[in-house]
């Protein structure tokens, strides 16, 4: 149990957990990961028969990381020390763990949420929205991403290499277990109003944003790749339609000004796609994401040399187009020209110079990121 000033409810939580272990003949311990309590929670925990592990680094995730690292059991069940979870009914978690599930999640929406146990903002907006986003970004079977009562094997925890120190720790565990292909089960659990007289540590909007930010950062496809592809395809389609001449749609005429925006859309889309590659390679290198077989197959053919050749080829196309525009201008004795005609040469040429240069620089950067992977 993570603990920060839980003197009002800590004793009853420990007694319930110890009672569960004794009544079912389970060899286990109750471990309190104390995050710097100043209300005597440490003494209360020790008197109730729990083992206290002090964790200096602040944060919900930091406290849990410290407790998990110091836990002696083969299996670990974590839960808040505010008496909102039923520590007398943990057998469904234990049974699933004994069936070799790596992560067993509680689901409060299936088990029952007592009146007043969860604020309406969390019950009807925060949890459902963030859980839905999580399930869209990652193929997770979990219907309650933020349930604080969950069980897992210590081996699975080590493999997940959990790192976040705040409330987003709850999302990190689900996401990593999913990405690493671990066996995940879900059991119904109940949620009761907590027994504290003080406000909870959770801050709805701040911690909700931290969860959303984490989900996006762990999905380069949705954060960078898919928006980049959409921008590139849309910009290319519009640009190709405008290159021959103005495009009339109903009473609206699109011309070179729109062509410029189309070129910018393609450039931004291309940059977003390269960011997706950078992020994926970095995350795999640092152990944040598992190896991706498809990406490895791509990198067999997409090397520094092929990237440089492609970049130089695109760059020369841009230089050639610029030379063509310069020749056209010289034929007019460097005087005024019809902007519409000249810009249809200049915009694609400048765009090709930009795209070729970006391809060359991105190829070098990807090679730098890949150095550690090769080692």
Number of DSSP strands? 9
Average residue pLDDT: 91
Instruction: Tell me the name of the CATH class of the largest domain.
Output: Alpha Beta
Task: Give the C-alpha Rg.
Answer: 28 Å
Tally the structural domains. Answer: 2
Biggest β-sheet strands, sense, barrel: 4 strands, mixed
Class by SSE composition: alpha/beta
Q: What count of helical segments does DSSP give?
A: 14
Approximately what portion of the residues adopt beta-strand conformation? 5-15%
Helical residues, percent: 55-70%
Q: Label the CATH architecture of the largest domain.
A: Alpha-Beta Complex
Instruction: Tell me the series of helices and strands, N- to C-terminal.
Output: EHEHEHEHEHHEHHEHHEEHHHH
Order of strands across the biggest sheet?
Answer: 4-6-5-7
Low confidence ranges: none
CATH superfamily label of the largest domain: Spore Coat Polysaccharide Biosynthesis Protein SpsA, Chain A
Overall geometry: elongated
Termini Cα gap: 40 Å
CATH fold type of the largest domain: Spore Coat Polysaccharide Biosynthesis Protein SpsA, Chain A
Outline the structure in words.
- The protein is α/β, with parallel strands linked by helices and about 375 residues long.
- It has two domains: about 220 residues, Alpha-Beta Complex (Spore Coat Polysaccharide Biosynthesis Protein SpsA, Chain A), CATH 3.90.550; about 160 residues, no CATH class.
- It is about 60% helix and about 10% strand.
- The chain has 14 helices and nine strands.
- The strands form three sheets. A four-stranded mixed beta sheet has the order 4-6-5-7. The protein has a three-stranded parallel beta sheet with strand order 1-2-3.
- Helix 6 runs parallel beside helix 9, helix 10 runs antiparallel to helix 11 and helix 13 packs antiparallel against helix 14.
- The longest helix is centred in the last third of the chain and has 36 residues.
- The protein starts with a strand and ends with a helix.
